UniProtKB/TrEMBL annotation:
The organism of origin for this protein: Flavobacterium ginsengisoli
Organism lineage: Bacteria, Pseudomonadati, Bacteroidota, Flavobacteriia, Flavobacteriales
Pfam families the record matches: GmrSD_N
InterPro entries recorded: GmrSD_N
Domain GmrSD restriction endonucleases N-terminal: 15-224
Protein name, UniProt field: GmrSD restriction endonucleases N-terminal domain-containing protein
Length: 658
């Protein structure tokens, strides 16, 4: 061994491993020299090594740059050459049965991927019988210690290919091991240079090495997370086959590879699930957080790749492991339990795990909350019951579907911000204690710590009591909940049967009215002129002006603008406004009449405006003459104008009705 102040230390690979451990750092790319498209480069390098060893002619492999960290050399340039040398030494060690030297080769490891590191260790720790006519890669893959998922690791795939090429070239060289490790002959050597000794830093190399293949965010997270697990001793006294490192590269990878592979890659799916669980845990376990949980939730919703090991506590880690075990073991059962519930715009393609990990645009806050509810049911119940599962998910569906409806019909999701996500997840977590039979749980609990969606929770508790009193009501309540008009709420229906004032649930009337809702308002659709004409016949407190829910002023002729319901969702606003009794009376009328008959049979009072009578009786006015669903009414109500648009600038084209 000779020293050179400027060129570093001249070493053989064996001498390097004798002096210290060698670890390929996480910033490095995969082992590229073994790729299919690198056959020529690989062949040229192996041929050079072969000629040197066969002719016992020394060869210098130039510089290997790196840094020493805790007596471990981390190469920052030379990874490809070192990995090929490791494989050549392993081949010689194995072919010539040098089992007393395996501890030396164990000093070479990969931090880039956990799978690569485990493969290198397993390769050195297990015997392979080498014969000339059989490809070694086939024998390795057939070994009981080789996990099939390792074939998905590009570094391992490349190593297997290089091993086969080494076998083809070096099998007939006698005393290969002795030639490789001989200090006297020193056939294959290189300059080992520490960056600090030549005034360079790791950061400079990283910038220089940007041309290399970067690790995926998942690979970076996995390596960092594994370090956190070890440093925090979260898995002390756990058998290796049950550790996070083992399962994430075997059982869990098999699960994702089978169900969530895209373009032969599962990293994106993995990171989306881990990120979502981190979001959830920040809301469930609110103490001992180093960073504001709303900030963390926001960052993770914006980009799943923002997930960091520091976001996890030991409780979060245990929950993540439990979820990964649950889905990898029970996913076929979970998928088979189909939810017979409309989720409207949040309806999953398959199930909510699939939405979280496979959605192109990224799962919404609401879908992630529903995934959490789905997960909690299967975590908290030993025997899965489809009916009870539907009941639980229905209650959560009703909570997350409640919207802040505007008079224009715009209906933003209630869970649309990190704050509301935080609130609903905390509520679901509290309710999940009774998810095995949520109606019994809701009917019996008195107080909840969470105050999120308090009105809807009170309604869910009322439903639970009503169903406990009479199980036949469940079907009636569900049939109304599932309509597009009501979307999980029955408050309006309770108003229609006067339950709010009498506390007497009229089952027969409720049944009649649910038929009306399902017939006329089950699905969102175009609002008909028959509906508008029928509503114009409804009187509340002596007035026939349901359209008063919307108001604006038309300066052109100093009139008040009104809306005759322009969009389906405006009816939802109407039934929860001060004008809801108009809709209540219409629903009651529809229990024995249809919309056309209500208009045709209407007998206007003496002081009823003529223009309004004409709109009700003459169907052609709204059907053919109305260019919008807006009208303008002067103060004296002597006439109305059918407006050509919502905001007409003049009266031209606006039809006057007297």
């Amino acid at each position: 061994m000779t020293e050179n102040k400027y060129k570093g230390t001249v070493l053989s690979f064996f001498e390097l491993l004798n002096n210290k451990s060698v670890e390929i750092p996480i910033i490095q790319r995969d082992y590229a020299q073994g790729r299919i498209d690198k056959k020529e480069i690989r062949g040229n390098f192996l041929n050079a090594l072969y000629d040197s060893l066969n002719e016992e002619k020394p060869i210098m492999l130039d510089f290997i740059y790196g840094s020493n960290v805790d007596n471990t050399f981390q190469p920052l340039d030379g990874q490809q050459r070192l990995t090929t040398l490791f494989l050549l030494h392993w081949y010689a060690f194995t072919k010539e049965n040098k089992t007393d030297q395996n501890n030396i080769l164990k000093n070479f490891s990969y931090e880039t991927r956990i799978t690569s590191r485990d493969f290198c260790n397993a390769l050195v720790s297990n015997n392979i019988n080498i014969v000339e006519e059989i490809a070694i890669s086939k024998k390795i893959v057939d070994c009981p210690w080789f996990f099939l998922t390792w074939r998905n690791d590009p570094t391992i795939d490349a190593m297997l290919r290089t091993i086969d090429d080494i076998h083809q070239r070096f099998y007939k060289i006698d005393n290969l091991w002795d030639k490789l490790i001989s200090t006297e002959k020193g056939i294959i050597r290189f300059y080992n240079v520490e960056l600090k000794n030549i005034g360079l830093t790791d950061d400079l190399y990283i910038k220089m090495n940007a041309r290399g293949k970067l690790l995926t965010p998942f690979e970076n997270f996995k390596a960092g997370f594994q370090k956190t697990i070890i440093d925090a001793k979260w898995e002390n006294n756990i058998e290796f086959k049950n550790t996070f490192a083992c399962r994430i590269d075997t059982i869990w990878t098999d699960f994702f590879w089978h169900h969530f592979r895209k373009n032969n890659n599962i990293d994106d799916s993995f990171i989306k699930l881990i990120s979502t669980i981190s979001m959830i845990r920040n809301s469930v376990e609110r103490n001992n957080r180093s960073e504001d949980r709303i900030t963390v939730i926001t960052k993770l919703q914006e980009d799943s790749n923002n997930v960091k090991p520091k976001n996890f506590t030991i409780a979060d880690f245990n929950y993540l492991v439990e979820c990964l075990n649950l889905y990898s073991e029970k996913y076929s059962v979970i998928k088979s339990l189909k939810l017979d519930i409309p989720f409207w715009r949040h309806t999953p393609g398959q199930d909510f795990l699939h939405e979280v990990v496979f959605s192109e645009s990224g799962a919404s806050y609401t879908q992630k909350a529903l995934f959490f509810a789905q997960t909690e049911y299967f975590r908290n119940t030993q025997e899965y019951n489809l009916d009870k599962y539907n009941e639980w998910m229905r209650v959560v569906r009703n909570i997350v579907s409640r919207g802040d409806i505007e008079k224009s019909g715009k209906r933003p999701d209630i869970v649309r911000s990190p704050q509301t996500f935080d609130g609903v997840v905390n509520l679901i977590s509290e309710l999940s204690a009774g998810c095995a039979d949520i109606y019994i749980h809701l009917a019996s609990i008195e107080n909840l710590k969470s105050t999120f969606a308090k009105e809807q929770i009170e309604e869910e508790r009322l439903k639970a009591r009503l169903i406990q009193e009479n199980p036949n009501r469940k079907k009636l309540i569900w049939s109304v909940e599932d309509t597009d008009l009501l979307r999980g709420r029955i408050n309006f229906m309770l108003h229609c049967i006067d339950y709010e004032t009498s506390n007497n649930f009229d089952d027969k009337l409720f049944d009649k009215l649910q038929i009306v809702i399902n017939k006329h308002f089950k699905e969102e659709q175009e609002v008909s002129n028959d509906l508008r004409r029928a509503l114009l016949t409804i009187e509340v407190n002596g007035r026939y002006d349901f359209y008063g829910y919307w108001w604006s002023f038309w300066n052109v002729i100093s009139s008040n603008k009104r809306c005759l319901i322009d969009r389906f969702r405006e009816m939802e606003y109407l039934i929860y406004s001060d004008y809801r009794d108009y809709f209540k009376k219409l629903i009651l009328e529809l229990s024995s009449n249809n919309l056309k008959d209500i208009a045709e049979n209407f007998n206007p009072p003496v002081d009823f405006p003529k223009w309004k009578t004409r709109l009700i009786k003459d169907s052609t006015l709204l059907d053919n003459e109305s260019k919008s669903n807006y009208i303008a009414i002067p103060e004296d109500e002597s006439c109305c104008y059918l407006l050509k648009s919502k905001r007409p600038r003049d009266s031209n084209g606006c039809l006057k009705i007297e």
